[in-house]
Amino acid sequence: KTPWVRAAPEEARRVLAPPPLTFAPGSLARMDTLDKWLAARGYGHNECSNPTEARVMLSHLLSYPMTLGNAVREMGLLPPRAGVGDDRDGSSSFSTLTVAVLGARAEASLPLVWWRETL
Question: Could you write out the DSSP letters of every residue in the chain?
């Protein structure tokens, strides 16, 4: 734990609670940096007592899911975010993609809520 987390555990918990997944269709598809992503998603890390440490914690949690999500989208394996590339009737022509993360790394035990951020 960082000194900030030890000093402000409740604030750290609030920062680490993902906001509800409510956003305009397609709005997150263009978020190409972590700072843009955090701002668009409404994370409150900038309002806490140590925004730099809060960003570091969020970066640590989101770096692998964001990288994987962007890579599979670039390879055409994942549909664009909701509202982008949908068929005219609102349905999507993409099928489901199953991703298995194996290994001893922390990413393999990352809670599903963090994977939902990007996949």
Answer: --HHHHH-HHHHHHHTSPPPS---TTGGGG--SHHHHHHHHT--GGGSS-HHHHHHHHHHHHHHHHHHHHHHHHTT-SPPSTTSS--TTS------------SSSGGGG--HHHHTTT-
